[in-house]
Specification:
Helix content is about 20%, strand content about 35%. With about 70 residues, it is α+β, with helices and mostly antiparallel strands. Strands 2-1-5 form a 3-stranded antiparallel beta sheet, with helices on one face. A hairpin with a 5-residue loop joins strand 3 (about 40-45) and strand 4 (about 50-55). It comes from Luethyella okanaganae.
Length: about 70
């Protein structure tokens, strides 16, 4: 699943893929934005860890859990 995090006052966004379920990602984002933590911590499939201060998050886009298709569509 694709995750994209927009950062305030930055033209770029953080984008990565993770195998964690959408409900788990949504719960982590809601907890961080709800004031339970001062940062959002997520990891990707390659083992990288992303820590983003909650005060700088503009948006979090959670992609679908469908796998990407490879090849041509007829």
């Amino acid at each position: 699943m694709d995750i994209r995090i927009g950062i305030q006052n930055s033209p770029r966004e953080i984008g990565f893929e993770t195998s964690r379920p959408a409900a788990e990602i949504e719960k982590a984002v809601a907890a961080a934005l709800g004031g339970e933590a001062s940062y959002l911590k997520l990891s990707d499939d390659k083992g990288k860890i992303y820590i983003v201060p909650v005060s700088t998050i503009a948006y979090v886009e959670i992609g679908s859990e469908e796998s990407r298709r490879v090849g041509f569509v007829g």
